[in-house]
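Support request, please re-run this one:
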Amino acid sequence: MQGFFVTGTDTGVGKTVVSAALAMHMGHGYWKPIQAGPDSDTAEVQRLAGCRVFDRGVRLPDPVSPHLAAERAGAKIQLSTILAQAPTDGSWIVEGAGGVLVPLNDREKMIDLMTLLSLPVVVVARSALGTINHTLLTLEAAEARGLEVAGVVISHADGELSPADSANLVALREALGPRLLGEIPSLAAGAELPISALDALAARLWPVQAG
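Re-run finished. Output below.
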Protein backbone atom coordinates (compact mmCIF):
# COMPACT_ATOMS: atom_id res chain seq x y z
CA MET A 1 0.00 0.00 0.00
CA GLN A 2 1.13 3.53 -0.75
CA GLY A 3 -0.06 6.82 0.69
CA PHE A 4 -0.09 8.49 4.11
CA PHE A 5 -1.42 7.77 7.59
CA VAL A 6 -3.18 10.74 9.17
CA THR A 7 -3.15 10.72 12.96
CA GLY A 8 -3.88 13.35 15.58
CA THR A 9 -2.76 14.52 18.98
CA ASP A 10 -6.37 14.11 20.13
CA THR A 11 -9.84 13.23 18.92
CA GLY A 12 -11.88 15.89 17.09
CA VAL A 13 -8.75 17.77 16.11
CA GLY A 14 -9.33 17.95 12.34
CA LYS A 15 -7.94 14.66 10.97
CA THR A 16 -10.90 14.16 8.67
CA VAL A 17 -10.60 17.61 7.04
CA VAL A 18 -6.88 17.06 6.46
CA SER A 19 -7.57 13.57 5.10
CA ALA A 20 -10.17 14.93 2.66
CA ALA A 21 -7.88 17.73 1.52
CA LEU A 22 -4.98 15.37 0.90
CA ALA A 23 -7.17 12.78 -0.84
CA MET A 24 -8.52 15.44 -3.20
CA HIS A 25 -5.17 17.08 -3.89
CA MET A 26 -3.20 13.86 -4.36
CA GLY A 27 -5.84 11.82 -6.12
CA HIS A 28 -5.67 9.18 -3.38
CA GLY A 29 -8.46 7.05 -1.99
CA TYR A 30 -9.58 7.15 1.64
CA TRP A 31 -9.72 4.38 4.23
CA LYS A 32 -10.58 4.50 7.92
CA PRO A 33 -9.75 1.00 9.17
CA ILE A 34 -11.22 1.49 12.67
CA GLN A 35 -14.31 3.56 13.38
CA ALA A 36 -15.84 3.86 16.84
CA GLY A 37 -19.19 5.60 16.59
CA PRO A 38 -21.27 6.51 13.53
CA ASP A 39 -19.17 6.20 10.37
CA SER A 40 -19.63 9.84 9.39
CA ASP A 41 -15.95 10.37 8.55
CA THR A 42 -15.99 8.17 5.44
CA ALA A 43 -19.14 9.84 4.13
CA GLU A 44 -17.75 13.30 4.89
CA VAL A 45 -14.46 12.65 3.09
CA GLN A 46 -16.31 11.30 0.07
CA ARG A 47 -18.59 14.36 0.06
CA LEU A 48 -15.73 16.82 0.40
CA ALA A 49 -13.11 15.17 -1.78
CA GLY A 50 -15.22 13.17 -4.24
CA CYS A 51 -12.62 10.43 -3.90
CA ARG A 52 -12.97 6.67 -3.87
CA VAL A 53 -13.39 5.21 -0.41
CA PHE A 54 -12.65 1.77 0.99
CA ASP A 55 -15.28 0.98 3.58
CA ARG A 56 -14.06 -2.34 4.95
CA GLY A 57 -12.70 -2.51 8.47
CA VAL A 58 -13.80 -2.50 12.09
CA ARG A 59 -17.07 -0.64 12.65
CA LEU A 60 -18.22 -0.22 16.26
CA PRO A 61 -21.33 1.68 17.40
CA ASP A 62 -20.11 3.51 20.52
CA PRO A 63 -18.09 6.75 20.15
CA VAL A 64 -15.45 5.82 22.73
CA SER A 65 -11.91 4.45 22.69
CA PRO A 66 -11.71 1.55 20.19
CA HIS A 67 -10.85 -1.05 22.84
CA LEU A 68 -13.84 -0.03 24.96
CA ALA A 69 -16.17 0.19 21.95
CA ALA A 70 -15.13 -3.35 20.98
CA GLU A 71 -15.64 -4.61 24.53
CA ARG A 72 -19.14 -3.11 24.64
CA ALA A 73 -19.94 -4.73 21.30
CA GLY A 74 -18.70 -8.13 22.49
CA ALA A 75 -15.90 -8.04 19.93
CA LYS A 76 -12.12 -7.81 19.85
CA ILE A 77 -10.04 -5.81 17.41
CA GLN A 78 -7.49 -8.02 15.66
CA LEU A 79 -4.77 -6.32 13.64
CA SER A 80 -4.33 -9.44 11.52
CA THR A 81 -7.97 -9.16 10.44
CA ILE A 82 -7.60 -5.47 9.61
CA LEU A 83 -4.51 -6.12 7.51
CA ALA A 84 -6.27 -8.94 5.67
CA GLN A 85 -9.05 -6.46 4.76
CA ALA A 86 -6.72 -3.65 3.68
CA PRO A 87 -6.73 -2.44 0.07
CA THR A 88 -3.96 -4.11 -1.89
CA ASP A 89 -3.42 -1.61 -4.69
CA GLY A 90 -3.42 2.11 -5.28
CA SER A 91 -2.58 5.01 -2.98
CA TRP A 92 -4.60 5.78 0.12
CA ILE A 93 -5.03 8.36 2.83
CA VAL A 94 -5.54 6.22 5.94
CA GLU A 95 -7.11 7.97 8.92
CA GLY A 96 -6.58 6.69 12.44
CA ALA A 97 -9.00 6.82 15.35
CA GLY A 98 -7.84 9.09 18.15
CA GLY A 99 -4.11 9.39 18.76
CA VAL A 100 -1.15 7.08 18.34
CA LEU A 101 -1.36 5.45 21.78
CA VAL A 102 -5.11 4.86 21.90
CA PRO A 103 -5.61 1.18 22.86
CA LEU A 104 -7.15 -1.23 20.36
CA ASN A 105 -7.18 -4.27 22.64
CA ASP A 106 -5.43 -5.41 25.82
CA ARG A 107 -2.04 -5.56 24.06
CA GLU A 108 -1.98 -3.31 21.02
CA LYS A 109 -2.37 0.38 20.28
CA MET A 110 -3.04 2.45 17.17
CA ILE A 111 0.69 2.87 16.66
CA ASP A 112 0.99 -0.91 16.21
CA LEU A 113 -1.33 -0.68 13.21
CA MET A 114 0.63 2.32 11.92
CA THR A 115 3.86 0.34 12.21
CA LEU A 116 2.42 -2.61 10.30
CA LEU A 117 1.12 -0.36 7.50
CA SER A 118 4.46 1.50 7.44
CA LEU A 119 3.10 4.63 5.75
CA PRO A 120 4.55 8.13 6.20
CA VAL A 121 2.67 9.86 9.00
CA VAL A 122 0.91 13.24 8.94
CA VAL A 123 0.17 14.50 12.46
CA VAL A 124 -2.74 16.90 13.03
CA ALA A 125 -2.24 19.00 16.17
CA ARG A 126 -4.42 21.42 18.10
CA SER A 127 -3.47 25.08 18.38
CA ALA A 128 -4.67 25.43 21.98
CA LEU A 129 -2.67 25.34 25.21
CA GLY A 130 -1.09 21.93 25.82
CA THR A 131 -0.34 21.30 22.17
CA ILE A 132 3.46 21.47 22.53
CA ASN A 133 3.52 18.49 24.86
CA HIS A 134 0.90 16.52 22.93
CA THR A 135 2.54 17.16 19.57
CA LEU A 136 6.11 16.43 20.58
CA LEU A 137 5.08 13.28 22.45
CA THR A 138 3.24 12.08 19.33
CA LEU A 139 6.29 12.74 17.17
CA GLU A 140 8.58 11.03 19.66
CA ALA A 141 6.36 7.94 19.80
CA ALA A 142 6.19 7.69 16.00
CA GLU A 143 9.91 8.18 15.52
CA ALA A 144 10.71 5.64 18.26
CA ARG A 145 8.87 3.05 16.16
CA GLY A 146 10.90 3.98 13.09
CA LEU A 147 7.95 5.60 11.34
CA GLU A 148 8.62 8.33 8.80
CA VAL A 149 6.94 11.55 9.90
CA ALA A 150 5.96 13.52 6.81
CA GLY A 151 5.08 16.54 8.94
CA VAL A 152 2.57 18.28 11.18
CA VAL A 153 -0.57 20.26 10.39
CA ILE A 154 -1.79 22.66 13.08
CA SER A 155 -5.58 22.85 13.32
CA HIS A 156 -7.33 25.97 14.61
CA ALA A 157 -10.55 24.02 15.12
CA ASP A 158 -10.84 25.38 18.68
CA GLY A 159 -11.43 28.88 17.35
CA GLU A 160 -9.99 32.15 18.64
CA LEU A 161 -6.83 31.78 20.70
CA SER A 162 -6.17 33.33 24.07
CA PRO A 163 -2.91 35.26 24.57
CA ALA A 164 -1.45 32.19 26.31
CA ASP A 165 -2.51 29.96 23.43
CA SER A 166 -0.95 32.35 20.91
CA ALA A 167 2.38 32.44 22.74
CA ASN A 168 2.30 28.67 23.04
CA LEU A 169 1.65 28.35 19.31
CA VAL A 170 4.66 30.49 18.46
CA ALA A 171 6.81 28.12 20.51
CA LEU A 172 5.31 25.07 18.76
CA ARG A 173 5.98 26.54 15.32
CA GLU A 174 9.59 27.16 16.31
CA ALA A 175 9.95 23.64 17.74
CA LEU A 176 8.58 22.06 14.57
CA GLY A 177 10.57 24.12 12.09
CA PRO A 178 10.43 22.51 8.63
CA ARG A 179 8.23 19.69 9.94
CA LEU A 180 5.30 22.15 10.01
CA LEU A 181 3.38 21.55 6.77
CA GLY A 182 0.75 24.22 7.31
CA GLU A 183 -2.28 25.24 9.35
CA ILE A 184 -6.05 24.81 9.05
CA PRO A 185 -7.95 28.06 9.68
CA SER A 186 -10.73 28.17 12.22
CA LEU A 187 -14.35 28.05 11.09
CA ALA A 188 -17.41 29.71 12.59
CA ALA A 189 -19.34 27.44 14.93
CA GLY A 190 -21.27 24.89 12.89
CA ALA A 191 -19.78 26.07 9.58
CA GLU A 192 -18.60 23.60 6.97
CA LEU A 193 -15.37 23.94 5.04
CA PRO A 194 -16.39 24.76 1.44
CA ILE A 195 -15.55 21.96 -0.98
CA SER A 196 -13.96 24.53 -3.30
CA ALA A 197 -11.48 25.46 -0.56
CA LEU A 198 -10.13 21.96 -0.03
CA ASP A 199 -7.69 21.74 -2.91
CA ALA A 200 -6.25 25.17 -2.15
CA LEU A 201 -5.87 24.10 1.47
CA ALA A 202 -4.13 20.88 0.48
CA ALA A 203 -1.82 22.70 -1.92
CA ARG A 204 -0.62 24.80 1.00
CA LEU A 205 -0.26 21.75 3.23
CA TRP A 206 1.43 19.58 0.69
CA PRO A 207 3.13 21.09 -2.41
CA VAL A 208 2.78 18.15 -4.80
CA GLN A 209 0.79 17.62 -7.95
CA ALA A 210 -2.36 15.54 -7.82
CA GLY A 211 -2.27 12.17 -9.51
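The chain has a mean pLDDT of 87. Residues 131-144 form the longest helix (14 residues).
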